[in-house]
Please model this.
Amino acid sequence: MPEAKDFDILISGAGIAGATLASALSGQGLRIGLIEAQATANTPLPKGTSIQDFDARVSAITPKSSALLEQVGAWSSVMAYRACAYHHMTVWDAQGTGMIEFDRDDLGVGCLGHIVENRAITSALNAGLAERNDVTRFSPAELAGCTVDGTGAVTVSLVDGRSLRADLLVAADGAMSKVRELLNFQTREWSYGHKAIVTTVQTQKSHENTAWQRFLPSGPLAFLPLPSAENLHLCSVVWSQEEARADELMALSDREFSVEIASALEHRLGDVTECAQRWVFPLRQRHAVDYVQPGVALVADAAHTIHPLAGQGINLGLQDVAVLAQEILAAVEAGANPGSIEVLRRYQRQRKGENLAMMAAMDGFKRLFEQDALPLRWLRNAGMRGVGRIAPIKQLIMRQAMGL
Ligand SMILES: Cc1cc2nc3c(=O)[nH]c(=O)nc-3n(C[C@H](O)[C@H](O)[C@H](O)COP(=O)(O)OP(=O)(O)OC[C@H]3O[C@@H](n4cnc5c(N)ncnc54)[C@H](O)[C@@H]3O)c2cc1C
Model:
C-alpha cells in the first residue's frame, strides 16, 4: 500500500509568489504545506517617518497583479499600510531627443500601477495565512532534498530532518531555486554583465506620482515614486550599470553617490538630498526549459528571471501563480491528481510563451539602448517620438505593460 501523504500541495518558498499561491488555494478543501527558510517577522512594519524606514526592494505592481492580491485578501492591507499610485510615466533617451510619456488619462484608468515595498506584500499575505487552518507553515525551515517516486508522489526533506509527502511540490523558492537544482531542471541563462543598485533617495522636488526612467548607454535608471511621508519627497531607485561601474558607484560615499545619481537623472527632481543604504544585485536572465515534471512545478523567479528595466518580474510570477492555481483547482474538481503531468503541462502551455515574449522584449530594449552607433541612436529616438504621437500604439504598449 502506498505511504500516506501529509499534504496535497507543498510549496517551497513563502515570498510573494509562494504566499500568494498558498492563499489562492486555501479554502478549497486542500491540505497545503508552506515551507520558508526565513523566520516570519513578528514586528510591525516601520511607519515611514524617515528615509531609512523604507524597504529598498520595491515592485511596480500592475493593476492585474493588484486584482489578484485583492482576490486573495491581501491588497487592502497593503494599501492600508502604504503604496504609491503612479499616474504618469516619463521615459527618455540619454543620447538624443527621444522621449515618450504615458498617462492614466490616455487609458482612462485611475492609475497605471502602484509602487509597493515587497515586504508590505509578504507581510499582508502572511497575516492572512496565519488565520487559515488548511495551510501549515514550516518556518524557519529549509528544503534540503526532494524525490519523486514511481507513483508520482513527492517526498521532501527539510534541513532539520523532517520528511513530508505530497501529490505536488511547487517551487516558489526564487531565482536560485533549490528544487530546480535538485531535480535537474535545465535552464537557459546568461549574465547581462550588469548589476542593479537599489536604494531609497530623498529629492528636492516632488516626484509628481510619476515613474521616471532614463536610458543611459551604460544602463537604465529608474526613479519610482514612494508615498510622501512627513512631506519628504522619496523615490525608490533602480540603477542598472555595467559591473565595474556599479562597483565604483557602490564604493562612493552617500554624498558622492547622491550627486552622481541626481546628475544621471538630469536633475529632473532637483538634487538628491539624502540616500539610504545601497544594495546591489547581479542581473541574470534565466529561463527554465521546462517548468514542470510529474509532481513538480516551478513558478515565478524559480522558473524565470528578467531584467528589472520594465518592472515585470513579480508581475509575470503572479500570473504564473494565477494560472497554476486555476489548473490545480480545476483538476481537483474533476477528481484528477493535481500533480499529474497532464495538469501541469496545461499550466506550462499557458505561461511559457508569454514569459518568453516579455523576456525577449526586455532583452531587445536593453541592447537597443546600449548601442552608440549613430543610425541606431537616430532610429530609437525617432521611434520613441513616433510611438508617442500614435495614440493606439501607445495604448497597446501600456495595456500590455499593465497586464490588461
Ligand atoms: C533590483 C531589482 C528590482 C526589481 N524590481 C521589480 C519591479 O519593479 N517589479 C517587478 O514585478 N519585479 C521586480 N523585480 C523582480 C522581483 O523582485 C522578483 O521577481 C520577485 O521578488 C520574485 O518573487 P518570488 O516569490 O518568486 O521569489 P523570492 O522573492 O526570491 O522568494 C523566494 C522565497 O523562497 C525562500 N527559499 C529559498 N530557498 C528555500 C529553501 N531551500 N527552502 C525554503 N525556502 C526557501 C526564500 O527565503 C524566499 O522567501 C526586481 C528584481 C530586482 C533584482
